[in-house]
Amino acid sequence: MQTWGELQSVQPLASKIIINSLKRNRISHAYLIQGTRGTGKKDFATLLAMTLLCEQRQGIEPCQDCHKCNRIMTGNHPDVHWIESDGKTIKNEQIDLLRKEFVYTGLETARKIYIISGAEALTVNAANRILKFLEEPDMETTAILLTDNGQSIIPTIRSRCQIIDLQPLDQTAFQHRLVQLENESINENNARLLSALTNNIDDAIMYHKEEKLYEIRDIVTQLIYELLDNYEERYLFVHQKWLPQLKERQDQALGLDILIIAINDVVHFQMGRENHTFLFQPGDGLLQRAVNQFTQKRLLQMLKDLLHARQKMNQYVHPTLVMEQLVLQF
Ligand SMILES: [Zn+2]
To answer: Which residue pairs, CB below 8 angstroms and at least 24 apart, start in 285-292?
Structure first.
């Protein structure tokens, strides 16, 4: 889990709002955290909950180690309640149930926290109920609403929340976040490739877990070797390696996407943007050779052919045909 200090570089505006209110000890009753998929809304809410309940907080930073912090991180703290929408609506009953639980059983601390994920799905009735018990003076309650789409939150809710906007992560920040994920052990090299394919953290983890991605990267690298060293054998390579190893159409498509990333790397490197590579590491020997051997004109033509091939793959042209044609054009 990141700290507020670390978050400041990734989400400067959002973390500033929280840090300032923590320093002045002015916590809102309700926060609306809005940001597109993959911006880290749940992590942000978890960190905020830990900050509010940690027993050994140092300044504004929760210790991330005490009993309470641990229970919040694993979703097991009795005073921190998550409500997830079923994808359509969050109903009265869900809110009522929660409220009862809080009143009767949530006695671990005075403060209770509701985290409502997919808050755009709150029905007007359910939203009104939340507002009502947020205003009960005897309950020290914080509601944290999370949404992909802030505009669809009803105005009466919006107006009572402190609004926190999370910005889409830039690629470097996204890579940094992937490397820091505790249970995934994603190295920097893999994080770079993942960040070129998606800026959604869940999708990146899914790619990483499947591992197919890294096999496909190896095949793409081999194809570039063939183009440099064994040009006459490229057609054979497609039949002996590429097609047998990438069996599914989606693997074929991913193969083309990664090849596009690789060729883009070479283009960027030629233009002197040496830290802007996603498949290759900056000092990669193969990259250096590709930079020397391919002219810019040829690279741009390759990209054009690749995009065309990618389109055909989407239009269900047979992968064998797409790949044969592509490498002959190369
Ligand atoms: Zn703690």
So the answer is: 286/221, 286/224, 286/225, 286/228, 289/228, 290/224, 290/228, 290/266, 291/266
* Average pLDDT of the chain to the nearest whole number: 88
Q: How far apart are CA 267 and CA 280, in angstroms?
A: 12
Sheet-wide strand order for 111-117? 80-84, 111-117, 140-147, 30-34, 162-165
Neighbours of ion ligand 1 (CB under 5 A): 54, 62-63, 66, 69
* pLDDT, tens digit (0-9, with 9 covering 90-100), for 91-145: 777 777 766 766 654 455 568 888 999 888 887 888 887 777 767 665 678 889 9
Gap from CA of 84 to ligand 1 centroid (Å): 25
Cα(320) to ligand 1 centroid in Å equals 57
pTM attached to this predicted model: 0.64
Q: pLDDT at position 87, please?
A: 60
